[in-house]
Design brief:
- By secondary structure, this protein is an alpha/beta fold.
- The chain is built from 20 helices and 8 strands.
- An 8-stranded mixed beta sheet has the order 3-2-1-4-7-6-8-5.
- The longest helix has 36 residues.
């Protein structure tokens, strides 16, 4: 990708703003605490507004989720004129994951409420770096008979050390996409009639997902100018995960639910779908970045000069939470996963650089998308620290002359009241989480349901340790030019789904 002359400047800006905020919050708490106290009160008021915003939209999306998973989408889709012309291409890149993970995902595809044997093209793309793992997975698929359950099953091996690539999901999916294009060309299918889903290998789609996706695609006035984003659950191994990891996983789901309710803000995330026409038009997923799942949306947005959007799908897909052999390693891996997601800050310089040179892209949309991306990354890195730690620093360091002032006397009570009101978001999340949980496995005791409720006291810790800190880590690395590679998240399960 050709980069403009100021690309390095745009890389520095997000991290510089974060560190400027944190340093000023500390320094001014010593030098001039009064302005910091005013700022913290205003910031906490703003955060209370954000919590109310969160509660409204998460409940709205939760209700749509509960409604849509009960709809007979196949009946609705099959009544449409073009239903029989639609094919689904499912791309499943994987690397170190074991055959059990692969088989579970293929099982969910085979059991979809859709004519799977007639319309599904499944591409299982392993890594040459882990050839033995790939061969074991393909052999297991054939023993289980899944290779004959679909219209076409295409196993492929992504070569190692190809030029201009970062080893990871993006480069693997890019390779798999080109192999799928060769097959689709041989079959003579129109690209407009193929819907491609780029799934993490642990993704288990809801039985009605593909029927719903087909209906949304066929009823969209411009189906090739949209991506389709499902609700992302992490239920495959939720009951076996440590409490902090469960809270972080639910936090991701609830964040996505609020975004789904406002699709003008929505980027693609993790497992998602789009038209094969758009995928070919943009040259497939970028193979030299870490966060290809959200970058593909920006590629399409820029390719079509702002005429591209994301349509929400309230029928879910489910993936694994981070889980390793030990609790400590699981937490370490969670941190690395969150840092990889936070590396989405790499989109900021890319978007600025491309938009500066695009004269046809509407100015209002330029401002909106840059602001949405920048504000999200900035708040991710700063808000938890400002709310839970730095907000109290000027009160601890205030001089005696200020401690006698009414503002100083009342500020702790004001902050406490604001934080108490903000806890509404935690209570709502705890309540709604039980509507998203899979049934309790037989080997789990009843009291562990109570733990599922009590775990929400960990929200402040997870916000900081697995929210703000990995985000600061990622933005600092980009600021210093220490670029992040793709970290493979270890997936394991004690029980199968």
């Amino acid at each position: 990708m050709e980069k403009g002359p100021y690309y390095r400047v745009w890389e520095i800006i997000p991290g510089a703003l974060v560190w400027l905020t944190l340093v000023l919050a500390v320094v001014l708490s010593f030098v001039s605490p009064l302005p910091v106290i005013y700022f913290i009160i205003v910031f906490d008021l703003f955060w209370l507004f954000r919590v109310c915003y969160f509660v409204f939209y998460v409940i709205l999306s939760w209700r749509r989720y509960q409604r849509d998973i009960r709809v007979d989408w196949l009946a609705k889709a099959s009544a449409l004129p073009r239903f029989r012309s639609v094919y689904h291409l499912i791309v499943l890149p994987f690397s170190k994951e074991g055959p059990d993970i692969v088989l579970t995902s293929l099982k969910s595809l085979a059991e979809a409420d859709f004519p799977v044997a007639e319309r599904f093209i499944v591409v299982l793309s392993g890594e040459e770096r882990f050839r033995e793992n790939y061969e074991a997975a393909v052999a297991a698929v054939k023993r289980a008979g899944y290779d004959s359950r679909f219209f076409r099953f295409l196993p492929t091996l992504h070569p190692k050390d190809l030029p201009d690539e970062i080893p990871g999901k993006g480069s693997n999916a890019n390779w798999a996409g080109h192999r799928a294009q060769e097959l689709i060309d041989q079959l003579g299918f129109s690209y407009d009639d193929v819907i491609v889903s780029n799934f993490d290998i642990d993704t288990c789609a809801h039985p009605r997902y593909f029927a719903c996706l087909t209906y949304k695609y066929l009823t969209n006035p411009r189906p090739t100018r949209s991506s389709y984003q499902p609700v992302a659950l992490y239920n495959n191994n939720m009951w076996d995960s440590p409490a902090a990891i469960r809270v972080a996983a639910f936090g991701t789901t609830f964040w996505l639910l609020t975004e789904l309710a406002r699709p003008e803000r929505l980027f693609t995330f993790a497992s998602h779908s789009m038209s094969f026409r758009a995928l070919v038009d943009v040259g497939f997923w970028q193979k030299d970045i870490v966060t290809e799942d959200s970058r593909i949306f920006l590629q399409c947005l820029l390719r079509y000069e702002g005429d591209y959007s994301v349509e929400p799908i309230y029928v879910p897909v489910s993936m694994d939470t981070v889980m390793a052999d030990t609790r400590w390693q699981s937490l370490v891996n969670l941190y690395k996963q969150q840092r990889r997601w936070a590396w989405g800050v790499e989109h900021f310089p890319f978007l600025i650089d491309r938009l500066r040179r695009d004269k046809k892209f509407p100015l209002s949309k330029k401002i909106y998308h840059v602001w949405t991306l920048a504000e999200g990354m900035y708040s991710w890195a700063t808000a938890p620290l400002l709310i839970f730690i730095l907000g109290y620093l000027p009160l601890w360091l205030a001089p005696e002359s200020l401690k006698s002032a009414a503002l100083y006397q009342n500020t702790p009570h004001t902050l406490e009241a604001l934080m108490t009101l903000s806890m509404l978001g935690v209570f709502v999340s705890a309540f709604l989480s039980f509507g998203l949980l899979p049934p309790r496995p037989a080997h789990k005791k009843r009291y562990e349901t109570v733990i599922m409720l009590l775990q929400w006291v960990l929200v402040p810790v997870t916000f900081i340790v697995f929210g703000a800190i990995p985000a600061i880590d990622a933005q600092t690395r980009l600021m210093l030019g220490k670029y992040l590679g793709f970290n493979i998240t270890q997936k394991s399960r004690k029980t199968t789904v």
